[in-house]
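Q: Sequence in, structure out?
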Amino acid sequence: MELNSIISLFIILLLFIASSGCVLDSTSQSIKETSSEPGGKYSEISGPIVIKSPGNYRLVQNLTPPEPTRISGTGMSMSVCINIQAPGVIIDGMGYTIDCEGSGYGQSAGLQTNFNAKKPGSGIIIKNVSVTNCYTGLALNRIMNSRVENANIVGNKIGVLSVSSSNITFNHNQLRNNEQGIEGHDVEKFIVNSNTISQTRLEAIFLSGEKGQPPVIDIAGNKFFLFPYAYFDKTNSGNGHVISRNEIENNGNGVSLYKSNENRITDNTIRDSRTFGIYLRSVDQSIVTGNTIANTRLTGINVQNGGWANLFENNNLSGNSRNIAQTTFPESVPLSAIIGILLVYLIKILTVTSKITREYGESRIIKRVSAKLKTLEGKISSAVNKYRASVILRKNLPVSLIGAVILGGAFTFINSFGLKIDIFITWTLISAIVVIVPKAIQYIVAGKKGILAQYRLWWGGILIMLFTTVIFRYVFGQPVRTEIDREDECDKKNLATVMLAGPLVSILLSSIFLVLYLMKGTYASLGLMGLEMSLLTAVVTFLPISPMEGERVYLWNKIVWALIFFPVLFMYSYFLLFIL
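A: Exactly. Output:
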């Protein structure tokens, strides 16, 4: 009897091990191990599961996540349908669907890898599965040498999110109607090949070499995560992505790379992007070739703070508002004497006190910089006046035309990766409108007030333009200034009225160009060019510094000046941050 009891206990133990699948910790208790196929053993998954050992797994039915569970130390709850905590795991969805609908959209993940940053997982394969209605469809965190293929990822907040991972391959997947497509932070060597990504509100593909981590506030022991993400703690190189032969259509951005080098973006078809087709920021030594980029609302290829070793060739760009643009933003620009001068005048504007103006305006640095600029401008003017051509530079129309050519050349340089004749002609024609029309109206208004307005090349402004264009790849400045004959004898109000005319016409031109831009189609590209240039002209000419028009208006009526300048400055800043 005692022997029978021991045998019975042993049999019960075996049955318990078999029913648990040996290697699985399941929240559904509905897992079965099978070995009916030549490929070896695999375990059937019929409910939410935590996988703690390597092996082959197959879905045998559609799944929904369990009730959300609290994540220790975060103050948040999360519902994960398949949680992988072991390397060497192969998940075959067999065409079944993980549907998070009803489980809490903001707290769910269809499938998640969960590894320690010091010991990442590897050999994870996910295939033939559909994931829908989750906050994150696939959360691939801290893994390497893994693959996702033939997945159908639809209607999620984030289709695929990966953090601190490398060597992940995405092949032949369908991503549709997600708010974000494939998103990676602190990732490197991603291969995104032959996927279809469509109808994404933000980026179809966004890969960054920096880690995304939300700031945390701790109140009485409760931690609250703030959004959007702040980027810091770079641990991977961010290099070596290969994005090829993908169909990317009707997304916010098509392909976005940030802080990443040695990439290849080849043979993709990117259509109907609402912002950029390809967006590269702080990217160098990368090849962009053989791509078809069409009908982009803003720019086909947009490069910000890019290196000098990028290669762009054999790309087919058509129907875009602008095909190619390259700019530099302040993250790579050090403080300079010019910025210091602008800050001094900003203090003057905000305080309107003579004491602070004297303290800063009479500082040695400001005096030296201003004196050197005036001296240099005077030397250039003297040299030019020695030649017969100086007669031309005293006539309004030739001066305006020369200014248009200089301005058009500067914008051509930063927006077309060098001087290209067709783009140069287009920019110069637009700049001619932006420079000549306000000056012509200003001349007419001056005549009616009995004031003689003359136009001269502003050598100081031209030098600033050359400096910002070549060093920072950003145009700031104006080549033409307004000179009033016998200005000291003019009535301040009449003089201010004349000076208001030019900037106000620039603002009106900005509105017209904005309408052309919003019309899309043939005129959208020209509208975007004109909008950028006319807003720049309005801001620079209305600065309250000599010899700009804004100084005369500021001295006449500070309130009128502020009511015009600050809205224009806001529009220009918004344009740079969100449209350009």
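The first strand starts at residue 24 and ends at 26.
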